[in-house]
Amino acid sequence: MIENKDNKTYITYQYARFFKRVMANLIDIILFLFCFGILFVSTRAIVNSTEYGKNVNEELYNIRLESGLYERVVSQDNRLLDIVSYINEFYGSASQKKSNAVGSINKFLNYSQKVCDEKTYNEIYESYLNYFLDDELVYFDEKTSTSTPYFKEVDADGFVIENEDCPANYLEYYENAYAPFIDNVLQGYLITAIPNYYELNKFSGDMLFYVEIPVSYLLSGILIYFVPTLIFKRGRKTFGKAIYRIGLVDKNFLNPSFGRSFARFSIFYFAELILSLFTFGIPYIISFSLMAFSKKRQGFCDYMLGLYEVDTTNLKIFYDLTDAKINAIEKPTKDIKFKNRDLT
């Protein structure tokens, strides 16, 4: 309510209900995630469309395919899938799974021999022998309580031979021996031993963490949490707060200045949210708790800046005293029972 009496102007607001504030924040979060997703895809497409980005992706694609540790998914625009995931998804029989896993391992050994120096290749090959001929890589028969090695020797070409006395079936060979070796050993060597792969992969990672995510995060925040406060200038509302008719007022119960509104956005977006990402949400939880249980129902940002979230269903927020006095004369409103403040 706003009224003039005793030659003084009084403004009365009601705190926004907690449920409405939660729902308004939830809407803003949903809009933010939607916007972030679109911007992230767009930013990644821009990075990948550059000449350097194209060359990096093409070289990575070729190395992965030639290494034998990835396979092309023709039905998905030739997207590459790591070989274990590909085998699990596209091969049904156990014999096919085992056979393709063996082929992938042999292909990687041949490829690494071709592209790596002798010392590096010997290290990879030694790891191959040590893994499959390890005394601990055994099949345990629960019925007889006996252990039998999966492999026992090497053939003339240097590849390990499956133990004919081992009762393990095709699927057990695949799941207990071949697939773990590909995932846990060869994928590691792909990064550390294959020339240029680490540098190319690092570029993609750097673009992700230093360009694509930060740019998407910054623009999403500006579009969802800051630009609306310029559109809904009266009350500095976001889209969610506009829907639930929640506005901001300063300590004088007037519209916050641009500077105070920008400071609120900066503290919330660049301090509270970013710190929450690295501290399991602790700053956000503290701010939410203050909003729910503090006497004046202020979140951390509002507490720092002396701002309040109020219900604007029955009364708009005023830019200054003149705006408030004119409204009191032209459109007197019904009292909402809050707290009167002398503004003259």
Overall mean pLDDT score?
A: 88
Element order: H for helix, E for strand: EEHHEEHHHEEEEHHHEHHHEHE
In this structure, how is the largest beta sheet organized? 3 strands, antiparallel
The total strand number stands at 11
Question: Which structural category do the helix and sheet elements fall into?
Answer: mainly alpha
Helix % is: 55-70%
Shape: elongated
Distance between the termini: 16 Å
Strand order of the largest sheet: 1-2-11
Cα Rg = 32 Å
In DSSP terms (H or I, runs of 4 or more residues), the helix count works out at 12
Portion in strands: 5-15%
Low-confidence stretches: 333-344
In short:
With 344 residues, the chain is mainly alpha-helical. The protein has helices spanning 18-49, 51-67, 83-90, 94-115, 118-132, 170-192, 197-231, 239-243, 258-278, 282-293, 300-305, 321-330; strands at 2-5, 8-11, 70-73, 79-82, 138-141, 146-149, 151-154, 160-162, 246-249, 308-311, 341-342.
Q: What do these coordinates show?
A:
With 344 residues, the chain is mainly α. Helices cover 60% and strands 12% of the residues. It contains twelve helices and eleven strands. The chain has helices spanning 18-49, 51-67, 83-90, 94-115, 118-132, 170-192, 197-231, 239-243, 258-278, 282-293, 300-305, 321-330; strands at residues 2-5, 8-11, 70-73, 79-82, 138-141, 146-149, 151-154, 160-162, 246-249, 308-311, 341-342. The strands form five sheets. The protein has a three-stranded antiparallel beta sheet, covered by helices on one side. A hairpin with a 5-residue loop joins strand 7 and strand 8 (160-162). Helix 2 packs across helix 7 and helix 9 (258-278) crosses helix 10. It is elongated and about 100 Å long.
